[in-house]
């Protein structure tokens, strides 16, 4: 009996899903076969049909783009005279190709070394060793001496030989001619691909130029070029202000070499290393030219200029070169002997902040040797004495300690508990006690007037024997805030690197007695540039302008046409905030310092200066070389005019304390001769 057929049983059909899988695989395999066929056809085309074309392209020419140095920007004074220019001299350069072996450079260096003599003092021991082992015969001697078993041509082999020569240099001598070639090889090997280095930049002889020029085709990358050095048409003294540059021999400064390399500099590029040259490096450096060098299969080269390059931008300074030199000369001729450590002066336009001259001379009090150092006006600070009194009295006005209507204070010796008695120069024992107004206190340079103003700032009134226990230490900050309105104790913002703020004394309770000294300039220290900004603020009526050396920047196009691109504007950093009456009292007092008929006036040595000047003198007690000395200082201006000055001479003897006025008088005479006509004053 047959079993009944089960309905609905699933049957496997030859046309089912299992039968469709091989079809998909066949399609994919077909596609792969077609792609492989296309790749095979293309490969055959490249290797057979187009082979000759590509071989010709590879062997016929090799090109690279080289960078060529341009002239550094020049620096001019305010009258257009060149202070810093460029002096070009013929040089021998080397531009390293994109791909070159050590053996190829070795051959080129040996060829160049036959015709070019360089200084070998900087030949390093590692490069000496590297050059030595490039010669197979010399390398064999090193192998025999060292006993190395490293396989020739490997890094281990080279390192073993080089290291052995470095340690036993005397056993493997080079002749002077070989050292000359090794030095050339060192310069080539240490350069970067497509960078240009100087094989010899100075004192290249005409014979060397001729010999190298005739054989350039056999010395790939070697050329006769131009090397620019800085030149100073007005004399080297200006270098103490504008700063210096590196040379190709010294290389990039060690403290900034990595940063400069990332900016595209080569190791032997010329860069600013100090002062204006450094601060304005990005402006002065220019943009290198780009030249495409194509070499055909026969070694012939063709140069195509892609970009002519652009010389660095020029700087025009506010400095007047003749006046700068005259001020420097005045300082050097008038600086006292003895323990004097220097003399510094800054002449400024109080309306714009432009510096006409900033000069300085450092003096070794042991040998008497003088060294020009204009930057001491921004990076050296001294206690300056009574020249701070206009700022101190103004601080009293601003904080209500005195007013234009009520500012009479009796000058008397100040005797407080725990502090030596302090007095004015003409009233040591109290026999000269007298009531003084603010302007008269300035004229007579009363120390005790400003000390009593300080006490009032702290909420106290003076009486003999009083204690300073109730005087808040915040009085220091009150005074310093007032001084800072004029630029004392803060950076002036001048466009010169290395500016300091000076040293501020301690303000702890233990030093509360020094608040008396602070009030008349015997505690904190200030730079000469700060004094210049300070007197400019007084002279212009109360706005603090940023001093600046650079007046404008000019660019030069490829046709050497000069265009002014930037003019430095007058920048106001702050205002004093005094009233007209307060300002007029300060102006009156400073005028009386010079022109009062009183025997107590401290600045009468300036009374014959024309046009008439206003001033404040200062004499700070100091100790130099174990001796009692003074810092003789001066701030002065011609009212309603374009000139003000500051002078500081530290370490002088009492007998020379008026040297500040002698120097000031001569500077004014030079200014009206060199910079402006005296008739232009007050216009």
From the N-terminal CA to the C-terminal CA, the straight-line distance is 142 Å
> What's the CATH first level of the domain at 322-680?
Alpha Beta
Weakly predicted, low-confidence segments: 1-18
- Counted by DSSP, the helix tally is 22
CATH topology-level fold name of the domain at 322-680: Beta-lactamase
| The CATH H-level homologous superfamily of the domain at 322-680 | DD-peptidase/beta-lactamase superfamily
The helix fraction, in percent, is: 25-40%
How would you explain this protein's 3D organization?
- The chain is α+β, with helices and mostly antiparallel strands.
- The chain has a domain at 322-680: DD-peptidase/beta-lactamase superfamily (Beta-lactamase, 3-Layer(aba) Sandwich), CATH 3.40.710.
- Strands 2, 3, 4, 5, 8, 17 and 18 form a seven-stranded mixed β-sheet that branches. Strands 11-10-9-22-21-20 form a six-stranded antiparallel β-sheet.
- A hairpin with a 2-residue loop joins strand 20 and strand 21.
- Helix 4 crosses helix 7 (176-189), helix 15 (389-398) packs across helix 18 (474-484) and helix 15 packs antiparallel against helix 21.
- Residues 1-18 have low confidence and may be disordered.
Brief sketch in words of this structure:
With 683 residues, this protein is an alpha+beta fold.
Give the helix/strand layout.
Layout: H1 17-49, H2 51-60, E1 61-68, E2 75-76, E3 82-95, H3 102-113, H4 125-132, H5 136-146, H6 155-167, H7 176-189, E4 196-200, H8 206-214, E5 222-231, H9 239-242, H10 257-262, H11 275-279, H12 281-284, E6 289-296, E7 301-307, E8 314-317, H13 321-334, E9 342-348, E10 355-363, E11 370-372, H14 376-379, E12 381-382, H15 389-398, E13 409-411, E14 434-436, H16 438-444, H17 447-457, H18 474-484, H19 514-519, E15 526-527, H20 528-539, E16 543-545, E17 550-556, E18 562-567, E19 572-575, H21 580-595, E20 614-624, E21 627-637, E22 644-652, H22 659-674
Parallel strand pairs: 2-8
Antiparallel strand pairs: 1-6, 2-3, 3-4, 3-5, 6-7, 8-17, 9-10, 9-22, 10-11, 12-15, 13-14, 16-19, 17-18, 20-21, 21-22
Helix pairs in contact: 3-7, 4-6, 4-7, 5-6, 13-22, 15-17, 15-18, 15-21, 16-21
């Amino acid at each position: 009996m047959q079993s009944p057929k089960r309905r609905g049983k699933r049957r496997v059909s030859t046309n089912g899903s299992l039968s469709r899988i091989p079809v998909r695989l066949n399609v994919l395999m077909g596609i792969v076969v077609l792609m492989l066929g296309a790749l095979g056809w293309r490969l055959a085309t490249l290797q057979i049909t187009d082979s000759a074309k590509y071989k010709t392209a590879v062997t016929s020419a090799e090109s690279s783009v080289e960078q060529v140095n341009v002239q550094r920007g020049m620096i001019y004074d305010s009258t257009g005279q060149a202070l810093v220019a460029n002096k070009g001299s013929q040089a021998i350069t080397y531009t390293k190709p994109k791909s070159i072996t050590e053996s190829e450079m070795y051959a080129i260096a040996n060829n160049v070394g036959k015709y070019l003599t360089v200084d070998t003092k900087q030949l390093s021991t590692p490069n000496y060793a590297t050059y030595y082992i490039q010669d197979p015969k010399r390398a064999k001697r090193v192998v025999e001496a060292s006993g190395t078993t490293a396989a020739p041509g490997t890094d281990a082999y080279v390192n073993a030989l080089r290291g052995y020569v470095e340690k036993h240099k005397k056993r493997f001598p080079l002749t002077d001619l070989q050292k000359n070639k090794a030095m050339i090889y060192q310069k080539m090997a240490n350069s970067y691909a497509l960078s240009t280095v100087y094989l010899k930049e100075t004192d290249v002889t005409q014979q060397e130029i001729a010999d190298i020029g005739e054989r350039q085709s056999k010395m790939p990358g070697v050329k006769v070029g131009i090397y620019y050095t800085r030149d100073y048409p007005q004399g080297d003294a200006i270098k103490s202000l504008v700063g210096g540059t590196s040379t190709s021999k010294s290389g990039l400064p060690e403290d900034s070499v990595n940063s400069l390399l990332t900016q595209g500099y080569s190791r032997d590029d010329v860069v600013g290393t100090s002062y204006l040259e450094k601060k304005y490096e990005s402006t002065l450096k220019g943009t290198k030219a780009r030249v495409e060098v194509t070499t055909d299969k026969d070694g012939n080269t063709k140069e195509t200029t892609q970009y002519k390059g652009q010389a660095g931008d020029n700087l025009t300074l506010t400095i007047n070169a003749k006046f700068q030199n005259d001020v420097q000369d005045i300082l050097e001729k008038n600086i006292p002997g003895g323990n004097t450590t220097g003399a510094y002066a800054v002449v400024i336009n109080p309306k714009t902040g432009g510096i006409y001259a900033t000069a300085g001379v450092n003096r070794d009090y042991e040998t008497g040797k003088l060294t020009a150092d204009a930057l001491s006006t921004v990076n050296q600070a001294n206690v300056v004495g009574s020249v701070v009194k206009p700022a101190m009295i103004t601080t009293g006005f601003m904080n209500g300690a005195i007013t234009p209507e009520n500012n009479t204070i009796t000058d008397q010796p100040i005797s407080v508990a725990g502090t030596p008695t302090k007095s004015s120069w003409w009233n040591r024992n109290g026999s000269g006690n007298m009531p003084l107004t603010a302007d008269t206190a300035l004229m007579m340079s009363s120390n005790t007037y400003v000390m009593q103003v300080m006490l009032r700032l702290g909420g106290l009134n003076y009486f003999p024997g009083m204690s300073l226990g109730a005087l808040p230490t915040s009085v220091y900050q009150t005074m310093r805030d007032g001084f800072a309105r004029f630029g004392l104790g803060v950076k002036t913002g001048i466009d010169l690197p290395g500016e300091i703020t000076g040293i501020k004394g301690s303000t702890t309770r233990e030093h509360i007695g020094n608040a008396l000294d602070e009030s008349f300039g015997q505690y904190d220290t200030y730079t000469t540039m700060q004094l210049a900004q300070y007197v400019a603020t007084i002279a212009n009526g109360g706005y603090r302008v940023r001093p600046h050396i650079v007046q404008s920047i000019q660019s030069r196009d490829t046709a050497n046409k000069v265009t002014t691109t930037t003019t430095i504007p007058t920048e106001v950093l702050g205002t004093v905030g005094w009233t007209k009456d307060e300002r007029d009292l300060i102006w009156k007092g400073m005028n009386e310092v010079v022109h009062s008929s009183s025997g107590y006036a401290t600045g009468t040595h300036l009374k014959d200066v024309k046009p008439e000047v206003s001033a404040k003198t200062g004499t700070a007690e100091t100790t130099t070389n174990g001796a009692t000395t003074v810092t003789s200082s001066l701030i002065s201006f011609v009212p309603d005019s374009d000139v003000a000055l500051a002078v500081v001479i530290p370490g002088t003897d009492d007998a020379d304390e008026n040297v500040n006025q002698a120097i000031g008088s001569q500077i004014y005479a030079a200014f009206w001769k060199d910079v402006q006509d005296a008739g232009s004053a007050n216009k």
